[in-house]
Design brief:
- It contains six helices and no strands.
- It is mainly α and 85 residues long.
- The protein has a single domain, classed as 434 Repressor (Amino-terminal Domain) (Orthogonal Bundle), CATH 1.10.260.40.
- The longest helix has 14 residues.
- The two termini are 28 Å apart.
- Keywords: Plasmid.
- This is YdaS antitoxin of YdaST toxin-antitoxin system.
């Protein structure tokens, strides 16, 4: 799961997050999902609208998604790399 997918999942859907952000159309949030991350300049607003979630959205949520993305992309050391180390 990418960072953007993790954040979007906390709101339920792309449309739900877009509505919370005051967007008439979900295309901006869809773009985040396609790219895999929420732009840094948008993160404070996403945190603000996510304060009402249960549990509230925190900065850690942005890192959780990034960690999951890194693990899924094989950025952790594989067993074959560890054997060579």
């Amino acid at each position: 799961m990418t960072q953007a997918e993790h954040i979007i999942s906390r709101f339920g859907t792309i449309s739900a997050l877009a509505r919370k952000l005051g967007h008439k159309h979900p295309t901006t949030v869809q773009g985040w999902k396609e790219r895999g991350w929420v732009p840094a300049d948008q993160q404070p607003l996403v945190l603000k609208v996510g304060a009402d979630l249960e549990p509230p959205l925190t900065p850690q949520d942005f890192f959780e998604g990034a960690r999951e993305q890194a693990a899924g992309n094989g950025l952790r050391r594989s067993a074959s790399n560890e054997a060579r180390a």
